[in-house]
């Protein structure tokens, strides 16, 4: 039998009444809950992968900035000899690291959005062939863009802090 509840809020009462009669029940709500659970797990997995990528990128930026400083010690010494203050040297290196972090965030957003659109295109080609229509599985909200760019700037400042501090001591 197929039983349709008039209201979504009545579903638990209808199910319990049917199950009290000794019948089993299956609901579309169960399937939707399982799909939501699956997507939640996939989002968590992608979040962990993104966090690992962020840590690796941070270490790479720190290494790049440190090597850049070591290669430019004479340049920094010359700038300070010409009258540049230690605060200005620190600002120079922090600005460099913030720019590197910001452009890394922009590139990551573009690559991620592009990959999502490619996956949507691949799924849509299969769905259109089956007669379902276009499927869009990739959405990048503006708030997410702001969070990513802010985080990229923070990572740039954090990874550039120690090389910038070291540059002021030259």
What does this structure look like?
By secondary structure, the chain is mainly alpha-helical. Helices cover 79% and strands 0% of the residues. The chain has 5 helices and no strands. The chain has helices at 11-20, 28-71, 73-81, 86-130, 142-168.
* Amount of helix: over 70%
Percent of residues in beta strands? under 5%
Number of helices: 5
- Shape assignment: elongated
Per DSSP E runs of 2 or more residues, the count of β-strands stands at 0
Largest sheet: none
**SSE order:** HHHHH
Query: Could you name the ranges where pLDDT drops below 50 across 5 or more consecutive residues?
Result: none
Compute the gyration radius: what is it? 27 Å
First CA to last CA: what distance? 82 Å
Structural class: mainly alpha
List keywords for this structure.
170 residues; mainly alpha
Short structural description:
The protein is mainly α. It contains 5 helices and no strands.
Compile the SSE list and pairings.
Blueprint: H1 11-20, H2 28-71, H3 73-81, H4 86-130, H5 142-168
């Amino acid at each position: 039998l197929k039983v349709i509840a008039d209201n979504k809020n009545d579903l638990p009462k209808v199910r319990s009444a049917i199950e009290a009669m000794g019948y089993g029940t299956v609901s579309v709500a169960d399937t939707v809950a399982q799909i939501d659970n699956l997507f939640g797990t996939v989002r968590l997995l992608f979040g962990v992968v993104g966090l690992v990528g962020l840590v690796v990128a941070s270490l790479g930026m720190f290494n790049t900035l440190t090597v850049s400083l070591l290669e430019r010690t004479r340049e920094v010494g010359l700038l300070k000899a010409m009258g540049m203050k230690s605060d200005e040297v620190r600002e120079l290196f922090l600005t460099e690291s913030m720019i590197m972090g910001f452009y890394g965030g922009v590139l990551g957003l573009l690559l991620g959005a592009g990959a999502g659109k490619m996956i949507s295109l691949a799924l849509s080609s299969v769905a259109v062939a089956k007669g379902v229509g276009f499927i869009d599985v990739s959405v990048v909200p503006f708030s997410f863009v702001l969070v990513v760019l802010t985080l990229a700037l923070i990572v740039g400042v954090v990874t550039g802090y120690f090389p910038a501090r070291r540059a002021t001591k030259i």
